[in-house]
Amino acid sequence: MSNLSISTSSDANVLCRCGVNSELKTSWTRLNTGRRFICCKNTKRRGGYDYFRWYDDEIPPQEKKII
Questions:
Q1: CA 8 to CA 29: how far, in whole Å?
Q2: Where exactly are the structural domains of the chain?
Q3: Is the pTM of this model over 0.70?
Q4: d(Cα 25, Cα 54) in Å, to the nearest integer?
Q5: Are 64 and 21 in contact, with CB atoms under 8 Å apart?
Q6: Per-residue tens of pLDDT for the chain, all 67 residues
Protein backbone atom coordinates (compact mmCIF):
# COMPACT_ATOMS: atom_id res chain seq x y z
CA MET A 1 0.00 0.00 0.00
CA SER A 2 2.77 2.39 -0.77
CA ASN A 3 1.77 5.76 -2.19
CA LEU A 4 -1.52 5.51 -0.33
CA SER A 5 -3.24 8.83 0.01
CA ILE A 6 -5.72 8.96 2.85
CA SER A 7 -8.07 11.35 4.52
CA THR A 8 -9.08 10.62 8.09
CA SER A 9 -12.77 10.45 8.86
CA SER A 10 -14.39 9.67 12.20
CA ASP A 11 -13.13 7.03 14.59
CA ALA A 12 -14.41 3.58 13.65
CA ASN A 13 -14.64 2.48 17.32
CA VAL A 14 -12.90 -0.82 16.60
CA LEU A 15 -10.26 -1.74 19.15
CA CYS A 16 -7.00 -3.11 17.76
CA ARG A 17 -5.09 -5.91 19.53
CA CYS A 18 -2.61 -3.27 20.73
CA GLY A 19 -5.45 -1.64 22.71
CA VAL A 20 -5.78 1.51 20.59
CA ASN A 21 -8.97 2.55 18.78
CA SER A 22 -8.64 2.18 15.04
CA GLU A 23 -9.36 4.92 12.52
CA LEU A 24 -11.79 5.06 9.62
CA LYS A 25 -9.93 6.39 6.58
CA THR A 26 -10.62 6.87 2.89
CA SER A 27 -8.33 5.60 0.16
CA TRP A 28 -7.54 7.95 -2.72
CA THR A 29 -5.45 5.53 -4.76
CA ARG A 30 -6.29 4.95 -8.41
CA LEU A 31 -7.62 1.43 -7.79
CA ASN A 32 -9.60 2.15 -4.61
CA THR A 33 -10.67 5.79 -4.91
CA GLY A 34 -13.22 6.65 -2.24
CA ARG A 35 -13.17 3.21 -0.65
CA ARG A 36 -13.09 3.35 3.14
CA PHE A 37 -11.04 1.17 5.45
CA ILE A 38 -10.35 0.71 9.14
CA CYS A 39 -6.77 0.54 10.39
CA CYS A 40 -4.78 0.76 13.60
CA LYS A 41 -3.56 4.24 14.55
CA ASN A 42 -0.24 2.65 15.54
CA THR A 43 2.05 1.37 12.84
CA LYS A 44 3.97 -1.84 13.45
CA ARG A 45 7.04 0.30 14.14
CA ARG A 46 5.19 2.04 16.99
CA GLY A 47 4.05 -1.22 18.60
CA GLY A 48 0.85 -1.70 16.63
CA TYR A 49 -0.28 -4.73 14.67
CA ASP A 50 -0.96 -3.08 11.31
CA TYR A 51 -4.66 -3.96 11.68
CA PHE A 52 -6.50 -3.32 8.40
CA ARG A 53 -9.89 -4.19 6.92
CA TRP A 54 -12.10 -2.67 4.27
CA TYR A 55 -15.14 -0.81 5.61
CA ASP A 56 -17.77 -1.32 2.94
CA ASP A 57 -21.29 -0.03 3.35
CA GLU A 58 -24.04 -2.61 3.43
CA ILE A 59 -25.73 -3.04 0.07
CA PRO A 60 -29.35 -1.81 0.17
CA PRO A 61 -31.98 -4.55 -0.47
CA GLN A 62 -33.02 -3.07 -3.82
CA GLU A 63 -29.44 -3.19 -5.10
CA LYS A 64 -29.06 -6.79 -3.89
CA LYS A 65 -32.03 -7.77 -6.09
CA ILE A 66 -30.33 -6.24 -9.13
CA ILE A 67 -27.03 -7.96 -8.44
A1: 14
A2: 6-66
A3: no
A4: 10
A5: no
A6: 444 444 444 445 777 788 878 888 899 999 999 999 988 888 666 666 778 889 887 777 776 677 6
